[in-house]
From TrEMBL:
SUPFAM superfamilies reported for this sequence: AhpD-like
Protein name: Putative peroxidase-related enzyme
PANTHER family: CMD DOMAIN-CONTAINING PROTEIN, SI:CH211-175M2.5
NCBIfam families listed in its UniProt record: ahpD_dom
Pfam families (UniProt xref): CMD (PF02627)
Keyword entries, A-Z: Oxidoreductase, Peroxidase
Source organism, top-level taxon: Bacteria
InterPro entries referenced in this protein's UniProt entry, alphabetically: AhpD-like (IPR029032), AhpD_core (IPR004675), CMD-like (IPR003779)
Gene Ontology terms, MF aspect: peroxiredoxin activity
Carboxymuconolactone decarboxylase-like domain segment(s): 43-120
Length: 183
């Protein structure tokens, strides 16, 4: 059960959050519990949606963004995000089960994406304290400075969603996937 009240409907959310939740519903066809929980703070919801939208305009492929989300959810032991991103990985990014399993281990079966996912996992595990060689590995794989910044922001954004879901104990509204930390 959630530790932070999750408005049951868009209409039950704070008035300032309702237009943002309606936009989420229009885009996704549903309003996942994460968004409704965060809607308790219209400012937090606006910040989350704004950063998410900005990163969607970046140059990292959607599949790589999902791979990073899966790796970070596993690092942080967030079952809500693992469940959501496994669903999105399969149904939106078209990742297969072997790739999702690799991503959860902090790797990828795609050679270029592997470098990004490994880097993202290291950023999360080392709390940003990576080596010159880690950054150089990204550049050697063809990632530029802008993409390096985007990877770090994806780590930060996914860590935030992991943390809010763990603090709130958000009720999972996707097919449930359990992290290795929870097992």
């Amino acid at each position: 059960m959630s530790r932070i009240q999750t408005p049951a409907t868009i209409e039950a959310a704070p008035a300032a959050s309702r237009p943002m939740l309606e936009a989420v519903h229009k885009k996704l066809g549903v309003t996942p519990n994460l968004f409704r929980l965060v809607s308790n703070s219209p400012a937090a919801l606006e910040g989350y949606l704004g950063l998410s939208a900005a990163l969607e305009k970046g140059t990292l492929p959607a599949a790589t963004r999902e791979r990073i989300a899966l790796a970070i959810a596993e690092v942080n032991g967030c079952d809500y995000c693992l469940s959501a991103h496994t669903f999105l990985g399969k149904n939106v990014a078209k990742l297969d089960d072997a790739e999702i399993a690799a991503n959860r281990r902090g790797t990828s079966n795609d050679p270029k994406a592997d470098v990004a996912v490994r880097f993202a996992a290291k950023v999360a595990l080392a709390r940003g304290h990576v080596d010159d060689a880690d950054v150089q590995s990204l550049k050697s794989a063809g990632y530029d400075d802008a993409q390096t910044v985007e990877i770090v922001l994806h780590v930060a954004l996914n860590t935030w969603t992991n943390y809010i879901n763990e603090v709130g104990k958000t009720t999972i509204d996707f097919p449930v996937v359990t992290s290795r930390k929870a097992a």
